[in-house]
Amino acid sequence: MPLNFADRLNNVETSAIRELFKLLGKPGIISFAGGFPDSAMFDVDGIRIAANAALTNEPGAALQYGATEGYGPLREQIASFMRNKGAQDLTPEQLIVTTGSQQALDLLGKTMISPGDKVIVEGPTFLATIQCFRLYGAELISAPVDGEGVKTDELERLIEEHRPKFVYLIPTFGNPSGALLNEERRRAVLAMAVKHQTLVVEDDPYGDLYFGETPPPLSLLALSAQVPGSRELLVHCGSLSKVLSPGLRVGWMVGPAELLGKATMCKQFSDAHTSTFAQATAAQYLLAGRMPGTLAKVRKVYAERAAAMGDALRRELGDGIEFVQPQGGLFIWARLTGANGKLADGAELAKRAIENNVAFVPGAPFYASNPDVATLRLSFATVGIDKIEEGIARLAASL
Amino acid sequence: MPLNFADRLNNVETSAIRELFKLLGKPGIISFAGGFPDSAMFDVDGIRIAANAALTNEPGAALQYGATEGYGPLREQIASFMRNKGAQDLTPEQLIVTTGSQQALDLLGKTMISPGDKVIVEGPTFLATIQCFRLYGAELISAPVDGEGVKTDELERLIEEHRPKFVYLIPTFGNPSGALLNEERRRAVLAMAVKHQTLVVEDDPYGDLYFGETPPPLSLLALSAQVPGSRELLVHCGSLSKVLSPGLRVGWMVGPAELLGKATMCKQFSDAHTSTFAQATAAQYLLAGRMPGTLAKVRKVYAERAAAMGDALRRELGDGIEFVQPQGGLFIWARLTGANGKLADGAELAKRAIENNVAFVPGAPFYASNPDVATLRLSFATVGIDKIEEGIARLAASL
User: Fold this and answer.
1) How far does B318 lie from chain A, in Å, by closest CA?
2) How confident is the model at residue B14 (pLDDT cuts 50, 70, 90)?
3) Structural domains of chain A in order of their starting residue, each with its CATH number
4) What is the pLDDT of residues B79-103, one digit of tens each?
5) Among A20, A27, A171, B65, which has the highest number of CB atoms less than 10 A from its own CB?
6) Percent of chain A with pLDDT over 70
7) Which residue among A36, A199, A269 sits closest to B106, beta carbon to beta carbon?
8) B52 contacts A48? CB cut-off 8 A
9) CA-based angle A364:A302:A147, to the nearest 5?
10) What is the DSSP letter of A164?
11) What are the residues whose beta carbons fall under 8 Å from the beta carbon of B4, sequence distance 6 or more?
12) A–B: how many Cβ contacts below 8 A?
């Protein structure tokens, strides 16, 4: 029997990137295509100690059904973690635990989006956000970004024109742009949320991965304390995936109480609750105070790799490529210039690169509309410096 | 700002049961209200050994992002577990891992249900199924059950009348009915799936919890090998929640390849994948061969408690109540008869019972339509035999 699937599936395409990923198993390939942290950096000992503590101290809670809102001690630890990053007054009740921050996006879609509703995203933005919101019937509008994040004047014009259900931004080292929204623009975003009474979603999985000594500007969540009325129009999504372990699937969502209540109701019927085993392990890990050390270690390694990749790109590809050197995160977002008749098509370069045993993701699929086909996303996170240099040399040969 | 939520939220009510559950913290209360296994039965040592093995043998896989379809070694273990229960030819590729079987229901809704589609469920059925499918806009039709499960003649009539998107059944020790669908009816369900080309969903979280020596009749999945054409019209949802630990959030879904492919695509945007840490732990647990011993232990304890509760109900409530003694699972589903002018309203009895420090769930909310207000669900799983007898005596006093 040909099965008769739900209409909403017509809103998504199977990703062109999936085809690319099938080729990544090729022996000898150097891959800059991933969107994940380096497994070699995982604090396995710390997680083992935390898991054992969870099973010793609270086996019932760690293995039984739990509250849909999240495991109490983890909510406390996350609130404390966020307060240390400037969200000064955050209480555990103001956040719910989600199964990775991907589920926070899904719950936002389920809670907020009726078919035909408009949502403004960055162009480019996280691929799984595009597909997630489209499954709920959203019409996505792209707001342009530059090296300092979303262009707020253009964003305000789009808000006025489209009256969106919400605006979704990854302000800090965004995927794929790597861009850091500057502080002036952060204030402008919060001000326009209040002025236009528009909900803003801040997705922030990368904010802890800054290079150098100085943290990035305050998150929209932390900054909202300085912009009266903005906090009630702000959702903030966080995650342990990029800084500790994606495999725990522990994320969280801060938001207005009414929205969190609806999202909790939806989550009850999505997966009942996030694994209490993973939550209790994460709570013990944070409680043990290992996170600052872990973060310092990964920041250092990613900073070195980002610098090496930037240097190699400038050296090997010269005027054939342009990019803003990232100040954090996992990605360099670059654009082929086509200078001197060089190739300016990211998808074509990706094909040639695979033949030369190096992989990256072409940029076009990251746009909800009007793709810039000359763009590419390169992850430096999972490759050692020697291999980065070798891989970029292969990329230059492919260009 | 009053937030403008998605229209789909209008399809669900906040549960009356939630109000009841708030009262369960009352000191001294004996609760038969839960729908969960007994924490005291968890094989904490076995899970600890499994988690440590996962982190020792495969730390990268256990902590990194994983395939949306599920962690390979766990899919193999689950397929093997299912083959041992009669699904003889099941391969790992024919199932995906879900974040508890609640997520399997959510993915079915997302993949299959367009607003206005009809779905046939049992009356009564699992409360979270009703809400989950309604969030996707399903119109639910209730098929009546008796002590031997869904009445298949009535079910066929409803299929012919409503042409549903699918039929959802909990054939083995269902929640809340506790009923066991007999073998003749199982064959009838598979035959009508083929005859009417109707998809059937078998939710089976309780099938391993049989009392006595003899397992229940083969699952619809296992039996489908004997009914040509039925396998391609069958989805089977399984779970470790009731037999090992709900906190792992490990469930699975077997189904036609095309449906699994669409469900996997939807899952990618729901939570990316189920916790690899929990999956690797579950895989190591199953690999270690501890499951048969764990199952034997919980079967014995739940069987004793079910017998004690049945005896106490007959002794204490006499002709005021009627029920079929369950042969497995976690629940006794009972009906107040109103004999000799006794109370015949489950919700009213629940209120009086709380005053007498005993709790259960009234049955009406378990019906998608035409509730029988005289029904109640009593869980015997988490209460020792002394407390069962005391609690039922209090219930009799409330009646």
Assistant:
1) 34
2) low
3) 7-43+293-398 (3.90.1150.10), 44-290 (3.40.640.10)
4) 999 999 999 999 999 999 999 999 9
5) A171
6) 97
7) A269
8) yes
9) 45
10) -
11) A112, A165
12) 233
